[in-house]
Amino acid sequence: MPEPTAIEVLSPGLFSTVQDLGRMGQQHLGVPVGGAMDRLAARKANFLVGNPASTPVIEMTLKGPRLRFHQDLWVATVGCQNASGTLSDDRPRLARAGEEWTIQLNPRVCRAYLAIAGKWLLPELLGSKSAFWVGARYFPEGARLLAGQKIPVQGKPLEPPRPWLRAGKSNPSKAIRLLPGPEWGQFPLSAQHQFLQQKWTVASQSNRMALQLKENLILNSTIPEMISAPVWPGTIQCTRSGQLMILMFDAQTTGGYPRIGQVLEADLDRLAQCRTGAPISLVLVQAAQAELIDQAYRSQLSQWTLPEK
Amino acid sequence: MRQFNYLTTNCLLVEWEARIDREINRQVHSLFAQLKSTPGITSLVPAYHSLAIHFDPKHWDHRQLQAFILAIPEGEEDKNEAPGTSLRIPVCYSPNFALDHQELAAAKQKKWSELVNLHTENPYRVYLIGFLPGFPYLGALPQLWATPRRAAPRQKVAAGSVGVAGAQTGIYPVDSPGGWSVIGRTPIAIFQPERADPFIFQPGDQVQFYAISEDQFWQMKQQSFTRTDLYA
User: Cα(B19)–Cα(B167) distance, rounded to whole angstroms?
Assistant: First the structure.
């Protein structure tokens, strides 16, 4: 058994956090769902290094970190590109003790994932190692990467090597698919029409809590006041001024803005990869169709999932 | 009357009449309590008048789960007791902590001590936990206490601060910005991230406030309290 050792964070990149499957089941306590924003990409990274899906990964946003390895470790990334001495997707590489790697993101993605073969020896909060923003800081300690930090990892050999699955294309549709939200019927027909016809743009204030859209929904009549009610990643809220917010994995668990739509689980990964300025169009699907789409997505997730030890 | 709606393909949303109401919220928590240990339920989000029920699609679909809920006997509905646990929470209402006591006393034309007596008179239910992790929305306040939100939110409200807004009262789990009027502070740490079970409150709890002096506040602040220490 190799000694637990560390990956040293020389620079953390723009915003890099530890993420796993999140805190499902704690939402009655006001705890966000959390976990990797692009769930399929995170699964793939863990799969390639032979880890079960619940193993943490590093989620990197726009600009990757610079890391020093203090032990030989098998590393896989999803959403990265070849750069000096670093990685391309689709096969794990061995990082030798003493090497320094600069992780570069593929310019087409917003978030990329890095997995290490082995165990991460990091503290948990509420059953997860995912970074969790409360008040003014991140919990648990070390879940948001900072320069100089050492992440203890217990590496393991890579066996057997896992191939990149040539599994079915994830999504033939370009538009983001959604179900009508609980308050859909309270929006005037003109607003419903605009909602589905408008070419929306992702605004720069977007983060792990929500994607904001740049254009406003035009509301000619007032939408009735709403009593706070449950929301979920994928819920599209509309403020009184017509600002749209697509809630993501670190969103609050309840909200007081009307819920105009609910993005299908299958399309959240694509939203997670939208950079500022990305165009978005929205299309409603029937419940029965939505079930099939999400079912197909979940079976794709399970193809990239290795059994828990 | 309850209505069943889709939130996601694996979340059933049960909605009661859209009011902030003790009885409606009691029904939400009654169903919440009944589903807590049901296999294949992955997460539950109770709010004022609605409950989101997330399920594992390998166990349930929308129709099966709806049928299961409709078959739960509603026998408990005629009891006045809520399913929640009773907790006693000390609060220091002294002017050093009750940042808005002057404004409130003036607006209500009452002495501060009278308002404090009224705030501690009856237990409140945790209608829901939201806004911040562990932040309990407690209700309903006596009518006299009803207070609009502050026009300008504070940049920083200290952890443990007890606030009021509308017919609600609540406690800030951590230092955070906040728009509620601040009427006191509890020495109890209601969010303890270093513990395996970091939160003091559960949705549906009954919370009885009692007033303490500043000396008592600082004494209790030295101690650490878990949920069970606060059982009434």
Answer: 12
Closest CA to A173 of A34, A74, A297, A14: A297
Phi first, then psi: give them for residue B146, nearest 5 degrees: -50, 130
Closest-approach residue (CA) in chain B for A234: B8
Given A139, A230, A264, which is nearest B13 (Cβ)?
Answer: A230
**Which one of B47, B54, B57 has the shortest CB-CB distance to A229?**
B47
- Kindly provide the b/e burial profile for residues B195-219, where b requires at least 16 CB atoms within 10 angstroms of the residue's own CB: eeebbbbbbbbbbebebbeeeebee
Prediction ipTM score: 0.94
CB atoms within 10 A of CB A95: 24
Print pLDDT tens along chain B (232 aa).
899 999 999 999 999 999 988 899 999 999 999 999 999 999 999 999 999 999 999 999 999 999 999 998 765 544 545 568 999 999 999 999 999 999 999 999 999 999 999 999 999 999 999 888 999 999 889 999 988 888 888 989 999 999 999 888 999 999 988 889 999 999 999 999 888 889 999 999 999 999 999 999 999 999 999 999 999 9
Asked if the C-beta of B111 comes within 8 angstroms of chain A's C-beta atoms, the answer is no
Rounded to an integer, what distance in angstroms lies between the CA atom of residue A52 and that of residue A121?
Answer: 15
Full-model pTM: 0.92
C-alpha B1: how far from chain center: 24
Is the CB of A140 less than 8 angstroms away from the CB of B193? yes
